[in-house]
Write a structure and sequence with these properties.
Layout lengths: L4 H23 L7 H26 L1 H31 L7 H29 L3 H18 L12 H9 L12 E4 L2 E4 L1 H25 L5 H12 L2 H8 L9 H22 L20 H31 L9
Antiparallel strand pairs: 1-2
Length: 336
């Protein structure tokens, strides 16, 4: 897949332009988006991502088109799961609803930059060291197993990481929010506000998420352009999706299990690919292992679609029954 430099530049400028458009049209004036506003703009961003995928399919062929759609769907699903953690962070720091858009948008911008760096590093490593597919594959198998074993019934709590604790020690923090400002001067001292802390929390948390998502999409395609654009389109519109899903997030109780299965599936795909590309001397004498055929991208896309659909269906079905039991008034018998 030969992507000219000018297309890379145009793509990056388009991503920056969409972020700036989001800021000046929605975030600059603090407000809590209505369900209608969130729904419209979520649809717009998903529609743009699909149109982009069709364009990529037309220019570079069906194989790369399938890789993009499989990667986009995987990254979007992982992003929705990440919204659970963002919701916990917002609640922990008691971020006012009308300022949450700004936190999410800056978090998305930070995530795109960090993932871009990760993608560049990952592409360089893959280009020179084919054995990294073994590492990626085993890591995804472990991550999927750990995600499947997690206790999803207990209420999660956010614990500040070491970087945030370091920031708190290095800079004085105000006791309360000062509008949506991140830096203020109080009593002659330059201080940061809880708004800055929560943005660092969102950004550093997404950095950890990248350790799962980047190996996952490299398991579906080794084309850096597809990896970057699938990640960018999955993250763009995440702010609107946060407000659109709202209480529905808590109803997706089986989403993590579905994602665990997807990560394990991609992990197996990566290990098989590593066996076909094998150059490790202590594995089969450094010879390629082709006993097991590679998993085609169309099959991975089908598995991802079915897994997400099944997880969402049974999640809604289970929580709908629980909701109905909660809202149904208890029937009392009148003593005769």
């Amino acid at each position: 897949m030969n992507v000219p430099l000018w297309i890379w530049a145009l793509t990056i400028l388009a991503v920056i332009g969409l972020l700036l458009f989001d800021f000046y049209s929605h975030v600059k004036t603090p407000h809590e988006p209505t369900l209608r506003e969130a729904g419209i703009w979520s649809s717009v961003y998903i529609g743009l991502a699909l149109v982009f995928g069709l364009g990529l399919w037309w220019v570079w062929g069906g194989d790369h088109g399938l890789e993009y759609f499989a990667g986009f769907l995987t990254e979007k699903s992982l992003s929705v799961d990440n919204l659970f953690v963002f919701l916990i962070i917002m609640s922990t720091f008691a971020v006012p609803r009308h300022y949450q858009q700004k936190v999410l948008l800056i978090g998305v911008a930070m995530a795109i930059v960090m993932r871009g760096i990760f993608i560049a590093l990952g592409a360089a490593i893959i280009e020179n060291f084919s054995w990294i597919f073994y590492i990626f594959g085993l890591f995804l198998l472990y991550t999927g197993w750990r995600l499947g074993q997690a206790d999803h019934d207990t209420e999660e709590e956010y614990k500040e990481n070491a970087f945030i604790r370091l920031v708190r020690r290095a800079f004085p923090v105000t006791n309360s929010y000062v509008g949506d400002r991140m830096f203020v001067i109080q009593n002659g001292r330059r201080m940061i506000t809880p708004m800055a802390i929560v943005m660092i929390a969102i950004g550093s948390t997404d950095l950890l998420f990248a350790f799962d998502s980047i190996p996952a999409i490299f398991g579906l395609t080794q084309e850096p352009y597809i990896v970057f654009t699938a990640n960018a389109w999955a993250l763009l519109g995440l702010r609107q999706l946060y407000f659109l899903l709202g209480g529905l997030l808590e109803r997706l109780v089986y989403l993590s299990y579905g994602l665990a299965f997807i990560l394990i599936w991609i992990g197996i795909k990566l290990v098989i690919h590593a066996m076909h590309e094998n150059e490790v001397p202590f594995i089969n004498g450094g010879e390629h292992i082709t006993v097991v055929p590679e998993i085609p991208t169309w099959l991975s896309l089908l598995v991802i679609l079915l897994t997400i659909t099944v997880a969402a269906y049974f999640s809604i079905r289970k929580t709908r029954g629980e909701t109905e039991r909660q809202v149904t008034p208890a029937q009392h018998t009148t003593p005769e």
